Task: structure prediction
Amino acid sequence: MKRGLISPSERATPAIRRTLRAVQALLLGGLLLTGLGPMLWLAKAAITPTQDTLRAPLTIFPTGVDLANLVTAWTRVEIDKYFLNTVVLAAGSWLVQLVVATTAGYALAVLRPRYGPLVTAVVLGTLFVPAIVLLVPLYLTVVRTGMINTFWAVWLPAGASAFNVVLVQRFFANLPREVLEAARVDGAGPVRVFWSVVLPLSRPILGVVSVFAVVASWKDFLWPLLVLPDPAVQPLSVRLPALQRYVELDVFLAALAISSVIPVALFLVFQRLFLQSGALEGAVKG
Amino acid sequence: MAVQSPARPAAVVAPPPAPRRRRSPVTWARRGGLTNLLFLLPLLVVFGVFSWAPIAQSVVMSFQRTNLVGPVHFVGLDNFAQVLGDPLLWTAVGNTLWFAALALVFGYPIPLVAAVLISEVRARRGLFSALAYLPVVVPPVVAVLLWKFFYDASPSGVFNTVLGWVGLGPWQWLQDPGSAMPALVLEATWAAAGGTVIIYLAALAGVSAEQYEAAEIDGAGIWRKIWHVTLPRLRGVLLVTFILQIIGTAQVFLEPFLFTGGGPANSTMTVLLLIYDYAFGSSLGGDYGAATALSIMLAAVLAVLSALYLRVTKSWSAT
Result:
């Protein structure tokens, strides 16, 4: 195993070993408390009656268990509907982002038309423009084109992600030229090369882009709040703050818990991908 | 090797301007020009409509007075003057700087220390980093609403109960102008720290064993190795996360919007919240001119920071 900061001989020293073990136990405790603690508390509160949560929020075993909270939240508060909206919004944003990033990446990195560098430059330029500048004019565009209260208002703007394009373009540019050349010699046209050679070779980067797309869509709040004023089409993130005003606390906390299940589950399943993407975020953005 | 290379140089070195006459659209299409364009079409449409045009429009609108209903007037720099003359702007700028400063104090050292410690874990390191990253995947709205409940000001609020165990509190948390902002930053730090930890862990994995061994031969202990090997090797990443954090905190919206709505007494009013209020806060119709003028000014400040960031990462990846 690769060694790090502390050398094997230092690890063998009893004093260092003991300190290290204590520090790591402390670290694990701290991470459990701060990382897992709030989520566990939310899970508990989701099935606890309101009175218990209010009177003694930190009791580990509440006097009563109220599984009905989850059912009430799912059915009467219609969390199922907002949940579905969230999923549909995420799926559409994911698809649009993937289509834009892969076709553009292919054109710019493999086909390389004469005007490609210019397009790349203009796309890169938008990295410098913070999203807030777009807020008002983009909102007015959505109003003018009648996309307000439709999912398109969220799906299409999501595709304009310069970060995705750059990421995919760089990956495509590093694909082995010989493989693409061989496919071309075998008579594959540009579309065929794209679909049957480039995309299958690019699974890692497509995974990264997918994680970014789904997570970002699930997290998004301000934009859907503006362009989806009709509660019937709102995602969870927009609906939850509004619900708080007229739903009982235990049901509300159950709704919060339900809203976190999918992202947390996705994270547990695709942990490596998430952590990889997270690291990429710092390293590649420039 | 020589056989495979022709494809690349041809594309890198610009082809000499051949004595070509105007190419007809047919030859252009046959040579793949049409295919190229079709592949670029999704990008051109989506970016054109939802990025480039709005950016341009934003600049134009900052010089206009418009409310969607009445006619549009060009008003020169009036919007900028109006925004700069708004006493609330300076409160918002001050608060945003205060948020950024607090976020640095809370959020800068903790992930670094955590990452260095996690990187020395031998067994189950994945568990450590997963735990650290877990808050990042919790939807931000859920996190804020959950913490809002934790911050409940009554003695039986979650955090006040904990304070009660050690004989403190109850504190007012979000209701007190002095503590509201730190409370917001605490939640924001909790939500974001895991991402920074992962970035540091990736950078720490790049520090080679030889460098540590060389330091050990010179007689360096653990602290000296941290100071003379680890930290210098992380310098680039530390600068990057520093700038990214400033850029991020300058655009903080969700926390003040959902926790406090800018209150109490405007103590958590941030620049982004002010932009939102200008444009969408009034039921009488938005002051879009003021909103775009302020967002352009914010963008100018952030662009300088981004340029700095790009410069740093360029020189850093070059070494």
Remarks:
- The radius of gyration of chain B is 26 Å.
- Confidence is low (pLDDT under 50) at residues 1-14 of chain B.
- The beta strands of chain B are 64-65, 73-74.
- Chain B touches chain A through 117 residues (CB under 8 Å).
